[in-house]
Amino acid sequence: MKAATMKPNLRNQQRADVVIDIVIEKPDGCQLTCKTSNLSRTGVMVSCNQETASQLIPNLKTPAPGDWISVKARFSVPVVTTQSVSILATGNIVHLRRTAKDEFQLGIHFADFEGNGLDYVDRYVRELLANTCKPA
């Protein structure tokens, strides 16, 4: 399958708050399951505990620009109410923030998607944003 390449537009994408399982795979093949905090076309914010964060980011030090940590991310998004599709994206950990004693957030910027992953993520994020902006 051909991968869809992302354009480096980091700041203009709206983020949708959504909590779903996400599996982060390191280059050595180690896989860790976390939860998302929000999702956009260009990336995802992941929540995890300190143990998981230290396995993904050595010394819990925010990666310097250009020295990002390459990972693969696998998660599912619904394409219709009763059916989900699995998304596989490659990307880089570009951000780390401690939010509580044993809670960290990792920002992953997507580099590319397998197959139609970008289209599915785009459609899902648009749907989430549309549903949060509806008047009561």
Keywords:
alpha+beta; 2 helices; globular
- Helices and strands: which structural class? alpha+beta
- The quaternary state of the protein chains shown equals single chain
Strand content: over 45%
Rg (CA only): 15 Å
Would you kindly provide a brief summary of this structure?
This protein has 136 residues and is of the alpha+beta class.
Task: Tell me what you see in this structure.
The protein has 136 residues and is an alpha+beta fold. It has 2 helices and 8 strands. It has helices at 50-56, 117-132, and strands at 4-5, 16-17, 21-25, 31-39, 43-48, 69-80, 83-100, 103-113.
Strands, helices and their partners?
Elements: E1 4-5, E2 16-17, E3 21-25, E4 31-39, E5 43-48, H1 50-56, E6 69-80, E7 83-100, E8 103-113, H2 117-132
